[in-house]
Write a structure and sequence with these properties.
Blueprint: H1 3-7, H2 11-43, H3 51-63, H4 75-95
């Protein structure tokens, strides 16, 4: 994705894209935990920690313990920045 394409997103589009990316990273981490568990299982390592426990700890850490995703973005500042970007983009297109 090009930076100019990123500037064309609305806040909701950008938020959805980053949430989807976060979800994909989280799924990759889960697969890494499972891979590590089974690698340890078949190599004969002792004292294996249950996978459910590890995944539950990951979920708690991801959700901040509350289970709700709180908005951490100042929407007004984002919209003002978006307006400045659009204005600069239009100005740059005018110089071509």
């Amino acid at each position: 994705m090009l930076p100019t394409q990123l500037l064309d997103f609305t806040f909701n589009d950008f938020d959805a894209m980053t949430a989807g990316h976060d979800e994909a990273i989280h799924e990759s981490e889960k697969l890494a935990v499972l891979t590590g568990y089974w690698a340890g299982y078949y190599s004969g390592m002792g004292r294996k920690k249950p996978v459910k426990t590890i995944l539950a700890q990951m979920e708690r850490a991801r959700n901040g313990g509350s289970g709700n995703r709180a908005p951490d973005v100042d929407v007004d500042a984002f919209l003002a920045r978006e307006r400045r970007f659009k204005k600069a983009q239009a100005k740059a297109k005018g110089r071509r």
